[in-house]
Fold this sequence. Notes:
This protein has 203 residues and is mainly α. The chain has helices at 34-48, 51-54, 65-76, 81-86, 93-105, 108-124, 133-149, 156-166, 172-181, 189-202, and strands at 7-11, 22-26.
Amino acid sequence: MPKYMPKVVSTTEPGKNKDSAVSLNYPMLMRGNYTTWALKMKVYMQTHGVWDVVVPKDSKAPIDDKMDKIAMATIYQSIPEDIFLSLAEKETAKEVWEAIKVMCQGVEHVKNAKIQTLKAEFESLSMKDSDSLDDFCLKITGMVTNIRALGEAVAEAYVVIKILRAIPPKFLQIVSTIEQFRDLDTMTIEEAVSSMKAHEERL
Length: 203
């Protein structure tokens, strides 16, 4: 799939006048960026108030035709022409969204294989003494985001424990303190990283 530059589109939210228009820099779907693209597009469509027609809360509820067309237009702004042409016969935003998801994530068995590969990489990750704590945690959270985007649940506590187990011995003191005095079941990734960064600065 070729790379495309993102489009800057001036748009007005449903029910708002032109004076309240905002410029949205729609992300362009490219090879390998589906997870990030889908997360951003969800936010854009929530901003427009049309996300519920893409992923309905009630599958039996009637679809608002105007909202559906806005959602489709929003998606079409952010995909290359070759994908757009393959979606020409889709009649609703939900069908378009699901078709793109299948194209990018593959069929179910391929998706499961991707999940297993990502989980194996996640388990094998460890931080080297030369790595910065910020970079390592970004790598961890990025991998978790990709796994979750494929439909696999990853508990926050599981990620926190992974981080505590994967860092170098210089953090042993703060890790021991966290494990003794904090509830790992309710601790967030941000709290764990913040505690370790404070310890790193003291070192």
